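Self-study notes.
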Amino acid sequence: MAAWTFLTHHAHLLLEVAKNPDALVQELADAVGISTRAAVSILNDLEAYGCVERERRGRRNHYVVHRSAALRHPTNAAHTVGELIDALTDLR
C-alpha cells in the first residue's frame, strides 16, 4: 500500500512554522520530511497567498502566520488558517 497522509506538505509546513516561527528552513524541512528546496518552494507559495510573512532578523528569517487568512480550497474557505492551526496543534 502506498504511503499517504490526510494533510499536504503545505499544511504540514504551515503547522511547523506556527510552532516554531524562528526555525531555519532546513529545520522546517526535516520536521516535515521534505527537502530544503521543497520547503523553500512551499514557503514561497504560503507567502504569495498571504498566510505567511517572512521578516528578516539579521541573517535569519522570522515567520509571521496570518491566522485570519481563509483556507484556499472553496469547500474550506469559510475557515481560517488559525482555525486549522488550533484544530491540529496545542498552540492556542
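Second protein, same conventions, sequence then structure:
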Amino acid sequence: MITEEMVCIMCPLGCRLIVTKEDTGEIKVTGNKCPRGVEYGKQEMTEPLRILTSSVLVINGEIPLVSVKTTKPVPRRLINDIMKILKQTKVQAPIKAGEVIIENILNTGVDIVATRNVERI
C-alpha cells in the first residue's frame, strides 16, 4: 500500500487529499470536498500531468524569445525531455499567438504553441 498527501488544485478550495493505492491497484481518495478532487488524486497517483510553459529563441524577431506552452497537460515524467527540445528550438519571426511551434511533441498528441506575437525586425 502507498499513501500520499497532496493539495488538490482543481478548484479554489485547495482540499488536503489523502490518496492511497492499495496492493490490489485500487486507488482511494479522501479529504476532497468536490468530485474533482477524486479525479485529481487518482491522476496524480497514476500519471501526474502538467501544463508546461517556457520560451524558445526567435531569429530576426523584435524580441529574442517567444513564450510557449503546451496545448494540453503532458506527463510530468516527460517535462525534462520536452525542455531539452525547447532549448534547442529556434523559430523565424514573425510569430503569431496560437501558432504551432512543435506539433505532437514526443508523440504525446500535444502541441507546443506560441502565447504571444513577435514581429520581424
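Instructor comment on the second fold: Residues 12 and 54 are 25 Å apart (CA to CA).
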